[in-house]
Amino acid sequence: MRRTLVSGSALFLLLALGCPPAADAQTRDDTLVYALQSDVDTWDPPNSVLREAIILGYHVFDHLAVRDLKTRRVVPNLALSWKALNDTTWEVKLRQGVKFHDGSPFTARDVKATFERVLDPTKKMTARGNHAKIKSVEIVDDHTVKFHTDGPYPIFVERLTALVMASEKVIKDKGHEWMQEHPIGTGPYKLVKWDRKHEHLLVRNDEYWGPKAPYKYVRIRIIPEQATQIAELISGGVDVIKAVPPDQIDVINKSGQARTASSPILRTAFLQLDQAARSGPNPFTDRRVRQAANLATDMDGIIKHVLNGLGDRVATAVNPMAFGFDAGLKPYKQDLAAAKKLLAEAGYPSGVDIVYNQGPPTVEPGLLQTDEAIVADLTKAGFRVKQNYVGDNTVFVARIKDSKAGPMFSFSWGYYSVFDADAILYDIFKCKETYAYYCNPAMDDLIIQGRSTLDQKKRAEVYAKAQKLAFDDAAYLFKWGLRGVWGISNRVDYQAPPDEVDRMFLVTPRKK
Amino acid sequence: MKAVSARGEVVLEADEPAALRAGPPRMSLRRLWRFKWGVAATAIILTIVGSAVWAPWISPWDPLSVDIRHRLGPPAWMDGGTRAHVLGTDQVGRDLLSRVIYGGRVSLIIGVAAVLVSSSIGVLLGLAAGYFAGRMDWTIMTLVNVMLTFPFVLLALAVIAVLGPSLVNMIIVLGIADWPLYARVIRAETLAIREREFILAGRALGMSHARLVFRQILPNLVSVIVVIATLQVARVIILESFLSFLGLGVQPPTPAWGNMLGEGRVYMLNSWWIATFPGLAIFVTTLAINLMGNALRDWLDPHMKL
Amino acid sequence: MKRYALRQLLQLGVVVVGISMLAFAILHVIGDPVLLLLPLNAGKEEYERYHKLLGLDKPVYVQYWKFASRAVQGDFGKSWYTDTPAFTLVLERMPPTLYLTSAGLVAALLIALPLGILAALKRHSLVDNLCTMLAVAGQAMPIFWLGIMLIIVFAVRLKALPASGYGTWQHFLMPAFTLGAFLAPLTMRLVRSGVIEIMNMDYIRTARAKGVGENTVVVKHAFRNACIPIITVLGLQFGQLLGGAIVTETVFAWPGVATLTVESIRNQDFPVVQCAVVLLALIIVSVNFLVDMIVGLIDPRIRLG
Known about the structure:
The complex is a heterotrimer. By secondary structure, chain A is an alpha+beta fold. Chain A is built from 16 helices and 19 strands. Chain A has helices spanning 2-17, 51-60, 108-119, 156-159, 168-173, 175-181, 226-234, 249-254, 287-296, 299-305, 336-345, 367-381, 393-401, 422-429, 441-451, 456-472; strands spanning 31-36, 65-67, 74-76, 79-86, 89-94, 134-141, 144-149, 189-195, 199-204, 217-222, 240-241, 258-273, 311-313, 352-358, 383-389, 408-413, 477-489, 492-493, 508-509. In chain A, strands 11, 12, 13, 14, 15, 16 and 17 form a seven-stranded mixed sheet that branches. Chain A starts with a helix and ends with a strand. The radius of gyration of chain B is 23 Å and the shape is elongated. Chain B contains eleven helices and no strands. By secondary structure, chain B is mainly α. In chain B, 66% of the residues lie in helices and 0% in strands. Helix content of chain C is 80%, strand content 0%. Chain C has a single domain, classed as MetI-like (MetI-like fold). Chain C contains 13 helices and no strands. Chains in contact: A-B, A-C, B-C. At the A-C interface, helix 1, helix 6, helix 7 and helix 13 of A face helix 2, helix 3, helix 5, helix 7 and helix 8 of C.
């Protein structure tokens, strides 16, 4: 019996030691390590809903257009130029001399094949909805494409940054399933191997048409636990991490091994109030109660004391970086007396009971702390807040979609990287949309107007009106535009990206 | 209790566990000294329970009162700490000592209630399986195996996603998760006991099943049940913290040791006190429970295999 | 003996089927998976299209029947997230978890055996209680607290071990220890009581009379006696280990099947959850089966009961 035990243990130990070896040909100097909290489900970006897939897609694929991080305008990438021929036709000219990783040349046929694949209703490509306004893609010649849209499509140019170009040959010859694990793009890196939920290894594409990436290898490690990520950063195991919670900034900065960098990002946070009564009758259907809530809270103070200044106050939910943002509109200033008065006028002289559905801090680090501060403020004005915290994001989002999140819940919106007011107004303020708990026909009109013309000046005016309406009507409890915080190892130089897309091909080693 | 045959022969063996002999074990000061560790542990537990019961009187602050300007304050003996907040404050400025004290209430209530639920279910099913044997045994043991193999996470997620995270639902989840352990042990013990002559004698005399099970068999198992239940309270407290780790436990802002630990884990690198003190509370409590359980076992029945 | 084996096998089968049914039912109760598969701004027609595509518009028992009939052939369908076969996904992630749990069991034994024996030899003394405390300490600290503490001490402060990840034997040390500490208390308790029992037995007295070293005798025979309950409990623990594995894998960024299961549950990726649950159940049940067989061989009373 004892012998069995001993040999059993020996077997276990053998198994333990015989696990896969590190198998790295790379050295520390030519490898960059980037950490993600969760892994992508697929290397086929239009088939994924995850931001991680977008980020990884930027490394192996190219888009027709990209956003210039300094000017924040859309600039050519695989497309050299674009022009609206009329309200429903766009002509795009493509770059020449670009090759896919398998050697085949990039032409108009690949653009057509990529779009048709995504738009095909019989497949379940998740990005279909984003590009559904495109009716058809017409090949004019090898390097010119015409897009025919279903009605005017003003964010066409923005959306050029939202689809990676795949190879027609791969789509036809290899098929959908193969493409989930084998990305063949035109991008600055190629995928060497993918250990699901463990790590990815990318190697530099030395035939890239654009600037050469400084690091030859990029290792993308999946580290779900935030404390572990920070530990890895300050012990040298990882070079770049994102979404650092504000309270942990000093740990990184004091470590001597790494530092933090922040940037305003496209995400805006707010508390949605159930004006549309989706979850049933509630006090927030009355504008005075909504205004009282906005007047009760000292958002500026919260940003200063709780977020250590890492937030940009906004008057509505439109982000300062989005097209159509009205900088002239000033946000609510805290005024507890006015708030109490409004509550009394609305019929709640001795305060009002409300339930606050809180989600977990998955995309908004620091949410828990700022929420507590907001609740404390609301309580001072007479709102008796019952907090209902849901720790699981899946459950929380499901409740919202199911109209069960009223009368008040915490939320934020990332705009899907479209720097345009339409990208939030439509989804959050338009009657009956999945995430909209506000319903106002006047707002709906403005939203439709905004998307029905290509005249940017006119659109700006429309959006200014929409924001004033949202503000005067106190559609929601407005908070701020988020700032992302990145942790960066002292051995590299890296700029925090305002579109939350980490580009490892822009990271350079620090000069000693 | 001695089983005597019709001819007056003593039919019981002499190495019967103490539980089958008459009366509870004798208490004396000397005996207490032998179990000094258990006594100390019991004293600690009584203190913890006491502080939980009298929490509103001994807690210096309201555990829910938020004070943004004093968030992340260190414990009193460190630089920047104050006597007002002996153990420091958490990420929104709530006093840690008060939260630990109130957290004890929640953790202990969950622990005891869940154990009551799981022991009731488990003992009943274990008795049924062991006593009736045959197909009933097979069915119940299959159920036990299903429960033991079934991922606890799935169960917890299901219950809480459907019913919502609340104290009662947590007790239900933890109660359902743990009953197989009791069932297994009780079944084994029942199987052993039912062959004893006094049981067979009882059947022959025409005693009903219920009477036999509840009046004759069960009393002999009380020691085992008590010891297991005591130890399981510790385990449930740990499970509660596991659920909080997944975001399914007692939801903030209600303090419970588990969710305080969960919230504080990212702070272990700088404001370590937020996670460490509830962690210590769990540690001390479960340690004391284990030592007390050990002592209980030795006191009631030194031959118990647990 | 054969009849016993057959009965246990039958139970094994029923258990696995029961588990898959229970998992299926629960998944359908949790919520609508399509809500999570589409991006936030997808419209209503997209939802309905997806529902049809995934077969979710049919009644539950029809769906279960389709699942079960394919599953016995090894086809668990394709993951709704990645379009790759669920079976491959789960199988890929099995080895790291199995390695981790085995290493954890070994670590647990390494902790529990010496402590248990020591505690038994010096029962009721300070040493006994200290050993208990040490063993219990591992379980009394929530795993993630222990894990993060270890990372802070060994990776950040001492820079002696990699903080997380999978690949070399150094990556094994902290996770295995964390998991092992979790399992140690119960194992130690059994070792201790096994040794105590032996100490009072006749053949020990005989050995003493013969002049053989007391402690050697005790240890040798204690092993044999404690083996049964230890094996039984380790078998039982294997199922509980998965719970501990989830936390350990998360904290140490270990690419195992436990975290895959939790994520798939959260994402309501039914095919993967079903596959993981069924495969894990098969493994656990097989381990228990082996345990029951071994124990049944040694102690006939149990199998006739």
